[in-house]
Write a structure and sequence with these properties.
single chain, alpha+beta, 4-stranded mixed sheet, 4 strands
Length: 105
């Protein structure tokens, strides 16, 4: 499956549009990660634990979107958009939503 944020894939003409596909992931961060991230906010630096959770959520959302595209008979997704939001009490959960157009190239 070819994934692209652009509307076309160079050298591969789109033969058929199969429809819009999405993937959604909501993941919670635990209190230990919150504690250590708070310390990082005070002393500076990157929060490896949050970055790992963010990558995991993005990968899961993309995988879900690819599965939906495959079910439509697509072999590529173009125009991919990835959105990140915090939800829940005090932003305690992270939502990653992906969307794109499933195509046959």
């Amino acid at each position: 499956m070819i994934l692209s944020t652009t509307p076309t894939i160079e050298g591969h003409p789109i033969r058929d549009y199969r429809g819009v596909v999405t993937g959604e992931t909501i993941i919670g961060a635990n209190i230990v990660k919150d504690f250590f991230a708070g310390i990082r906010d005070i002393v500076g630096g990157r929060s490896d634990s949050y970055e790992q959770v963010l990558r995991q959520a993005k990968d899961t959302s993309l995988k879900e979107m690819m599965q939906r595209a495959q079910a439509l008979g697509a072999n590529a997704i173009v125009g991919i958009d990835i959105d990140y939001e915090t939800i829940g009490n005090n932003g305690s959960m992270l939502m990653v939503a992906t969307s794109g157009t499933a195509v046959l190239i």
